[in-house]
User: What shape does this take?
Amino acid sequence: MDPRDELDDLNGPLDGDEDDDLGPDAEDDEELEDAEGHLLEAAGDPRGEMAPDDDEDGGLGPAFDLVPDDAPEAPGEAVPLTDDEADDLLTRYQRIEAVLTRRWPESRIEPTLDRIAGLVDLLGDPQRAVPVIHVAGTNGKTSTARMIESLLRSLGLRTGLFTSPHLHNLRERIRIDGAPVDIERFVTVHDDIAPYVAIVDRSSANSGGPELSFFEIMTGLAFATFADAPVDVVILETGMGGTWDATNVADAAVAVITPIALDHMDYLGPDLASIAGEKAGIIKSGSSVVLAAQELPVAEVLLRRCLETEAVAAREGVEFGVVDRTPAVGGQLLTLQGPAGRYDEVFLPLFGAHQAANAAIAIAAAEAFLGGGGTALNPDLVRQGFATVESPGRLEVVRRGPTVVVDAAHNPHGARALAAAVADGFEFSALIGVVAVLSDKDARGVLEALEPVLTEVVITRSSSPRATDVDTLAAIAVDIFGAERVEVAARLSDALDIAVERADDAAGELGGAGVLVTGSVVTAAEARSLLGRGEA
Assistant: This one.
């Protein structure tokens, strides 16, 4: 059955005025109640207090803003919720998060866009409401997307940003003007799309298929949020691959491909050319394309795709790139060349040559979006945009005394870039590693890449059910580091304690010792939480 056939059971057209193009106002409709129950049944207990993300309302939304008792009521100002209403909204958000994360996980994909296409069709194609910059690749996607977003925001655009995975809570994935979507808006938009999620779920089940996955629903929710905001541009990061990624229902004005390496081979293919072919799927007819420097087999696939789609490509090292880079306190000072302009004295508060390259990619993407690659950007606004870039969990200093650095590197390519950045941006006399890797990753490759910069390593595991067994990982580490340089801890918290103690001891003897925590996004997130950084 076509999912659209079920719309006759709902109230009103998809583009009615009462729903801001997100669907009919069905609050009194039994269909909405059924759909809400479909998404929230068996949610269990709430999963704890949510971390605040700003000073005024704790990230809850305008109805939670703190208003002095004697403050005059502003026209159109949201009325603060009562305690009971606030508790209800928080509980609803936590239940939504719990139910969504029980769906088909984003670590699995199925080669079809049918379900997400059905959902956005029912929603009125919100992915077509705003021009899109689409970012794919193996490493550097999130940092590059964040740089593009910050750059375009500094140039006066209202931005929407969709990235994955999150570190601490779902709202991090969907950002408007750089800030995570607040709880009130998240719950509202979720409830708006809930009937359509239920329709697609039933349609897929009737055809013998699965329900919408976690990532498909999050993608649809992001599109709906951005269309409702509204925003001037959406920067989309793919989840995995490109061709069959749920975000690929959007046709991007600018397609960005960051460095491609071996990862997710069970889904994307056994070699670089196969993986590149999947990621090249975001390149659409007539789009502008920004290509990071790639290995030859990858470059050949990507350029062939550009020819097939008549897309105009800008290549790192040819049309754009890093002209000069000097490490600086808290980051690096760059000179960047875009296809149209040169930008000097650009401070980037991130470490490593790979982040400098990501900044050049962001410049090329912004030039392509705003002027087709033929118009230079305002240099002062470019400097402003890069100076405020943040990329949590990416070579991030989360503690001093001793210095503790957290990074989400999870494959050999990323680990090599991390090792080079540590050597380039820090002067540790001793560096103690804390490493926990997921079982479907190349743990040996990750450890081999890190070995030259680590004095010793503490092997542990994250809380993920996909985490590599500690003993298995330790055996690999001993083979690479030698037994005298390997310590084992069953829990990440214990591993951090051991590493900090070792760094303190080394600092007493030599000074300048540090700790590097890495191996997966989950490892980085849990380390951040343990060290008091529960927001991202």
